[in-house]
Q: What sequence folds into this?
C-alpha cells in the first residue's frame, strides 16, 4: 500500500546529506547560551533527514533509484546514489541520529562547549550519510577522511589529558589508514580506469586474473584503509581508547557511524570494487574472512577481562563488527544477508547498550561492572533495555542477533566454509560469558551501599572536573538528589530513558518480526536479491 | 548579464565599430590594469596619510581583482595571447604572454592580495596616531601599503611577461620589495634576516641576469616564445639554464638554499609573512616552470630528476624541522620550505609518459601552488591574529586561544588541513592529481613521498591545534588584546577559498589547458 506517492527527485540524496550539514554549520555560529535554538536546529535537522530518507525508501521499494552527481575534477564526481544498499546504512544512521540527539541534549545539559559538540556531531552524521550513499570510491574517500576529522573534536571533547591522548591515538590510526586509502584509491583509478562502484565489481576480472599478486597488493592497501575504522585486529587499538568520549559519542559514533563506515567500506571493497568472485579467487576474501574470524574471537576474549563497562562494550563492538566483514566475504547469498543485516542489528543493540551505560554513569556514577550490584532495582527500565540488547548480542532466538548468526551459519555451509560454525559458536558462548554476569550482577547482587551521585565518578570526563561550569555542577547535584527524593519520578531524565527504550524495542522487533516486509532482514534480502551487491 | 559578458568579451562585439573605451576591455587592457593599477595605487599610498593608504589598498586590490577577472574571461574565450606593449616589436618592445598559467597565478595573487590588504588595514593600526607618537610600529603602518602594492605590480608583471629581460626587471623589484617588507618588523632579528634575504635575492637576480645575457648572446632574442621555437641546446644554453636555475632556486628557497627563508618569513610582520610565503616564492617558481618546461622543453631528464630529488628532500627536511619549532611563525615558515618541495616534485612527474607530458602532474603541481598560496596566507594571517592577541609568538603561549579566537583557530585549522591534503580542499585535489601522475607511470617512490609528506604536515599542524585547544598556561594570566574583526575574517575567507578549490576544480584545470604544459612547442 502506497501511503505517499514516490518522489522521483534525483537530488533527494543531496537533501539527506544537507539536512545534517546545514544545522552543523549553523550551530557553529551560535552562542553557548542559545540552547533552545541549538536544540531546535538539531532536532529539526534530524527529523528532516528522517523524512527525506522515508521518501527515498518509498521510492527504492517501488523500484526507483536516485543518483546525484557534481563534477569536481574531470572524470571524478561527487556521486550520491540512493539504492537499497545505501539506504540500509542511511536509514540506520538517520533513525539513530534522531534518538541520539535527544539523548545527547539530555546528557550534556549544563556542560561546557555544547556548541562545538553538537556542531561536530552533526558533521559526523553528514560524513556518515555521505559514506553510505557514495556512488564511487572518490566520494567515499572524501567523506571517509572528513569523518576522521569531524570525530576528532568529539573524542577529545572533555579536554582532559586522557582524552587528548586518546585523540592522538585515534588520529594516528585513522590518518595512516586514510593515507593508505587515498593512495589505494588513486591506484585503483589508474588500474581500473574508473572509480565508480559497480554491482559485481568495477575491475575487469580477466585483468585481475592476469596479475593476481599485484591486485592483491592493491586490495590490501585499500583494506588497510577500511580495516582501521572497521576495527579489525590488529588495527583496532584506537577503539577501546576512544571510549573516553562522552556516552552519546560512544553510542552513535563508536557503535554505529565510524565503525560501520569501515565495515561498509569492506563491503564496498569486496563487492563494488573487486567483485566477490574475483576477490575469492585471488584470496583477498579469504584473508578478510580469516582476519574477521580471528577478530570475532579475540574481541570477545578481551571483553571477558574488562571491568569498565564502556571498555567491555568497546571490545564487544570489535568482535561483533567483524560479523559483517565475515558474512560479506563469503561466496554465498545467505551469508551476505547475514553479514549485511548485522550492520543494522548490531547497531541497534549496541547503541542501546551504550545508552544504558551512559544512563548508569550519568545518574548514579556507575562506570564499572563491579559497581552494578542490584542496580536493576534502582533502574528497572534501563536494565530491562540493557538485558534485551545483551540477549540479542548473545544471539538467543528469537532476537535479532540470532537471525544474523543463523543466516551467517547456514550461508557458511553453503559457501563450503564449515570452519565458520565453530567461530560462531565460540563467539556466542563468549558473548554469553561476558554479558550474562553483567545482567546477573544487576539483578541479583546486593548494592554495595547508597547510590552515588554523578559527581563522585564524574562520568563526563576528567577535563570537565578541571573546569566545571557553575551551571553544570549545580544542576547535576540538584538533579541526582531529586531523583532520590521523589517517589514517582522516572528513574532518570526522560531524554535519556526514551532513546534507550526506543532502540531496545526496535531491536527486539527486528528479531521478532524478521519476516515482516519492513524488517531489516527483508530489506537485506531485497538488496542481495536485486543483485545490488 | 548578457551585456556584462559582452563587455568583458570583446569578441562578441567584433561586428560593431570599436569604441575607444571598449578597446580597454581586451587582453591588452586587462594586462595594463593589473600592472599599472597597483603601481598607481602604490604611489597614492606613498603619501602616508591614513585615507591615502586606505585608498591605495582598495585601488590596488580592486584593480588586480577586476583585471584578473577580465583576463580570465578573455583567455577562457579566446585562448592564450601575446601582446607587444606600445606596438614596439622585438627585441626592443615589452612583450607580454598571457595563457592559462598566467591567469591562474594572477587570480591567486589577486585573491590572496585582497585578503592581505583587508587584514593589513586592521593589523597596523592608525598610521597618523602611531607616526605622531614616533612609535616604531608607525614604520609598518606607513610603508607596508606602498611596498606591498609595488610588490603586487611586479608579481603581476612576472606572471604576464613574455620575455626574459622583463622577467629580470620584475624579479629584481619583487626581491627588493620583499626584503624591505621584512624590515618593517623593526626588531634586530628581523633586520638581520632581511639583510640576508636581500643578499640572497640580489645574488639570485644577478645569476638570472647572467643567464639572460648568455641567451641573448647565443640566440639574439629575449622572447620566451622565440627562444622556445629555437629550442636552446648545447653548452651555452646549458650554462645559461644552470646559472638561471641556481639563482631562481635560491630565491624560491629550494632545499638546500632554504636557510634564509624561515628567519625572514617568520620575522616579518604577519601580513608580510603571508605575502612572502604565499605569493613571492611563487614568482621565481613561475619563471622556473616557464624556462625548464616551456622554453627548454624539459631540458634533460637528469636535470628534472635532480629538481624532484631536491623537492623531496625539502618535503622531508622542512617538515621535520617544522615539528621541532617552538615559535608559531617559524613552524609555518618551515612548512613553506616543505610545501615548496611538492612544486619541485612536479618537474620529474611532468615527463613521465614517453613522448608526452602528463596533464595530471601539470594540473596537480599548479593546483598545489594555488591552494598553498591561499592556505598558507590564511595560516600566517590567523597566526598573526593569535600573536596579536597574546603579544607573543611561542606556540606554548597560545594555550586556549581556540576559545578566545574561534574563527582564527578555524581558519588556521582549515588552512593546515588543506596543506595536508585532507578533503575537501585544494590540497586534496592537488595530491590526488600528483599521486595519479606518479602511479600512472608506476613510480612508487614519488607516491610514497607525497603520502608521507601529507602525514608529516598533519603532525605539525596538529601540534599547533592541540596547544590552541588546551587550557591557557597556568600561573601567567596573559593579557588579551582584542583583535579587529576584519583580521579574523580575512584569514577565514582565504581558508574557505582553499576549501572551495577542493570542491570544484574543473574550470581551473581547464584554464590551465589554455596554453597547457607547452604553449610554444
A:
Amino acid at each position: 500500500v502506497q501511503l505517499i506517492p514516490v518522489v522521483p527527485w534525483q537530488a533527494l540524496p543531496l537533501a539527506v546529506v544537507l539536512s545534517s550539514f546545514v544545522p552543523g554549520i549553523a550551530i557553529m555560529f551560535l552562542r553557548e547560551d542559545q540552547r533552545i535554538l541549538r536544540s531546535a536546529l538539531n532536532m529539526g535537522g534530524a527529523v528532516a533527514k528522517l523524512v527525506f530518507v522515508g521518501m527515498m525508501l518509498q521510492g527504492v521499494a517501488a523500484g526507483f533509484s536516485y543518483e546525484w552527481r557534481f563534477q569536481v575534477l574531470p572524470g571524478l564526481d561527487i556521486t550520491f546514489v540512493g539504492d537499497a544498499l545505501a539506504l540500509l546504512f542511511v536509514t540506520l544512521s538517520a533513525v539513530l541520529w534522531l534518538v541520539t540527539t535527544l539523548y545527547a541534549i539530555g546528557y550534556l545539559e549544563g556542560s561546557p562547549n555544547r556548541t562545538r559538540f553538537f556542531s561536530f556531531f552533526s558533521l559526523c552524521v553528514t560524513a556518515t550519510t555521505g559514506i553510505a550513499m557514495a556512488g564511487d570510491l572518490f566520494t567515499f574517500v572524501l567523506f571517509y577522511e572528513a569523518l576522521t576529522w569531524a570525530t576528532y573534536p568529539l573524542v577529545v571533547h572533555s579536554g582532559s589529558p586522557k582524552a587528548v591522548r586518546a585523540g592522538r591515538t585515534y588520529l594516528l590510526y585513522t590518518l595512516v589508514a586514510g593515507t593508505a586509502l587515498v593512495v589505494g584509491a588513486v591506484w585503483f583509478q589508474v588500474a581500473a580506469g574508473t572509480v565508480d562502484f559497480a554491482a559485481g565489481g568495477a575491475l575487469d576480472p580477466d585483468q585481475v586474473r592476469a596479475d593476481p599478486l599485484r591486485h592483491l597488493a592493491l586490495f590490501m592497501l585499500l583494506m588497510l584503509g577500511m580495516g582501521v575504522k572497521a576495527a579489525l585486529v590488529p588495527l583496532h587499538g584506537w577503539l577501546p581508547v576512544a571510549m573516553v568520549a562522552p556516552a552519546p559519542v560512544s553510542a552513535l559514533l563508536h557503535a554505529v557511524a565510524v565503525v560501520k563506515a569501515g565495515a561498509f567500506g569492506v563491503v564496498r571493497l569486496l563487492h563494488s570494487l573487486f567483485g566477490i568472485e574475483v576477490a575469492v579467487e585471488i584470496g583477498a576474501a579469504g584473508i578478510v574472512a580469516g582476519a574477521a574470524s580471528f577478530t570475532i574471537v579475540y574481541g570477545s576474549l578481551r571483553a571477558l577481562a574488562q571491568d569498565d563497562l564502556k571498555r567491555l562494550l568497546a571490545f564487544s563492538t570489535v568482535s561483533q563488527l567483524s560479523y559483517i566483514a565475515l558474512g560479506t566475504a563469503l561466496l554465498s547469498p545467505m551469508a551476505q544477508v547475514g553479514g549485511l543485516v548485522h550492520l543494522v542489528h548490531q547497531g541497534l543493540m549496541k547503541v542501546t547498550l551504550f545508552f544504558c551505560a551512559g544512563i548508569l554513569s550519568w545518574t548514579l556514577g556507575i562506570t564499572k561492572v563491579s559497581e552494578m550490584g542490584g542496580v536493576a532495582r534502582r533502574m528497572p527500565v534501563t536494565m530491562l533495555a540493557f538485558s534485551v540488547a545483551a540477549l540479542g548480542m548473545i544471539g538467543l532466538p528469537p532476537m535479532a542477533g540470532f537471525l544474523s548468526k543463523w543466516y551467517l551459519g547456514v550461508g557458511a555451509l553453503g559457501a563450503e566454509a564449515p570452519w565458520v560454525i565453530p567461530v560462531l559458536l565460540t563467539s556466542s558462548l563468549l558473548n554469553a560469558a561476558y554479558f550474562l554476569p553483567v545482567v546477573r550482577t544487576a539483578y541479583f547482587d546486593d548494592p554495595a551501599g547508597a547510590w552515588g551521585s554523578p559527581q563522585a565518578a564524574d562520568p563526563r570526563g576528567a577535563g570537565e572536573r578541571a573546569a566545571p561550569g557553575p551551571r553544570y555542577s549545580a544542576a547535576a547535584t540538584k538533579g541526582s538528589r531529586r531523583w532520590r527524593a521523589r517517589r514517582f519520578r522516572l528513574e532518570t531524565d526522560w531524554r535519556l530513558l526514551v532513546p534507550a527504550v526506543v532502540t531496545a524495542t526496535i531491536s527486539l522487533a527486528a528479531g521478532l518480526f524478521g519476516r515482516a516486509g519492513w524488517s531489516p532482514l527483508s530489506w537485506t534480502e531485497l538488496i542481495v536479491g536485486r543483485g545490488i551487491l | 548579464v548578457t551585456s556584462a559578458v559582452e563587455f568583458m568579451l570583446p569578441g562578441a562585439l567584433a561586428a560593431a565599430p570599436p569604441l575607444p573605451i571598449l578597446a580597454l576591455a581586451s587582453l591588452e587592457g586587462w594586462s595594463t590594469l593589473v600592472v599599472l593599477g597597483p603601481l598607481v595605487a602604490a604611489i597614492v599610498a606613498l603619501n602616508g596619510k591614513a585615507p591615502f593608504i586606505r585608498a591605495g589598498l582598495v585601488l590596488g586590490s580592486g584593480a588586480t581583482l577586476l583585471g584578473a577577472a577580465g583576463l580570465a574571461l578573455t583567455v577562457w574565450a579566446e585562448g592564450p595571447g601575446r601582446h607587444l606593449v606600445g606596438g614596439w616589436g622585438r627585441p626592443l618592445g615589452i612583450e607580454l604572454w598571457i595563457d592559462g598559467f598566467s591567469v591562474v597565478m594572477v587570480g591567486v595573487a589577486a585573491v590572496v592580495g585582497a585578503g592581505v590588504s583587508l587584514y593589513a588595514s586592521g593589523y597596523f593600526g592608525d598610521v597618523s596616531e602611531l607616526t605622531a607618537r614616533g612609535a616604531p610600529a608607525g614604520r609598518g603602518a606607513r610603508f607596508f601599503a606602498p611596498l606591498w602594492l609595488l610588490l603586487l605590480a611586479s608579481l603581476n608583471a612576472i606572471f604576464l611577461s613574455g620575455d626574459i629581460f622583463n622577467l629580470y626587471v620584475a624579479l629584481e623589484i619583487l626581491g627588493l620589495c620583499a626584503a624591505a617588507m621584512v624590515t618593517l618588523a623593526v626588531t634586530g632579528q628581523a633586520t638581520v634576516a632581511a639583510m640576508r634575504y636581500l643578499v640572497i635575492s640580489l645574488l639570485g637576480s644577478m645569476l638570472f641576469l647572467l643567464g639572460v645575457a648568455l641567451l641573448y648572446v647565443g640566440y639574439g632574442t629575449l622572447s620566451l616564445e622565440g627562444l622556445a621555437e629555437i629550442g636552446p641546446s648545447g653548452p651555452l644554453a646549458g650554462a645559461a639554464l644552470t646559472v638561471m636555475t641556481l639563482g631562481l632556486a635560491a630565491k624560491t628557497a629550494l632545499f638546500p638554499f632554504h636557510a634564509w627563508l624561515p628567519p625572514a618569513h617568520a620575522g616579518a610582520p604577519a601580513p608580510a609573512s603571508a605575502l612572502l610565503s604565499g605569493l613571492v616564492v611563487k614568482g621565481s617558481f613561475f619563471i622556473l616552470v616557464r624556462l625548464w618546461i616551456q622554453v627548454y622543453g624539459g631540458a634533460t631528464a637528469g636535470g628534472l630528476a635532480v629538481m624532484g630529488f631536491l623537492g623531496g628532500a625539502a618535503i622531508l627536511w622542512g617538515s621535520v624541522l617544522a615539528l621541532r619549532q617552538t615559535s608559531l611563525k617559524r613552524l609555518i615558515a618551515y612548512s613553506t620550505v616543505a610545501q615548496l618541495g611538492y612544486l619541485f616534485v612536479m618537474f620529474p612527474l611532468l615527463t613521465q609518459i614517453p613522448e608526452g607530458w602528463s596533464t595530471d602532474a601539470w594540473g596537480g603541481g599548479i593546483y598545489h601552488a594555488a591552494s598553498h598560496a591561499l592556505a598558507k596566507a590564511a595560516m600566517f594571517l590567523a597566526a598573526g591574529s593569535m600573536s596579536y592577541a597574546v603579544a607573543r609568538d611561542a606556540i606554548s603561549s597560545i594555550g586556549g586561544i581556540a576559545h578566545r579566537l574561534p574563527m582564527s583557530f578555524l581558519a588556521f585549522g582549515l588552512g593546515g588541513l588543506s596543506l595536508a591534503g585532507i578533503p575537501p580542499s585544494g590540497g586534496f585535489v592537488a595530491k590526488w592529481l600528483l599521486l595519479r601522475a606518479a602511479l600512472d607511470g608506476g613510480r612508487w617512490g614519488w607516491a610514497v613521498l607525497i603520502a608521507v609528506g601529507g602525514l608529516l604536515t598533519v603532525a605539525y599542524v596538529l601540534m599547533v591545534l592541540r596547544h590552541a585547544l588546551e587550557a591557557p598556561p597556568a600561573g601567567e594570566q596573559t593579557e588579551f588584546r582584542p583583535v579587529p574583526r576584519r583580521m579574523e575574517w580575512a584569514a577565514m575567507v582565504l581558508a574557505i577559498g582553499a576549501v572551495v578549490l577542493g570542491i570544484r576544480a574543473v574550470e581551473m584545470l581547464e584554464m590551465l589547458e589554455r596554453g597547457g604544459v607547452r604553449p610554444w612547442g
User: Anything to note?
Assistant: The radius of gyration of chain A is 22 Å.
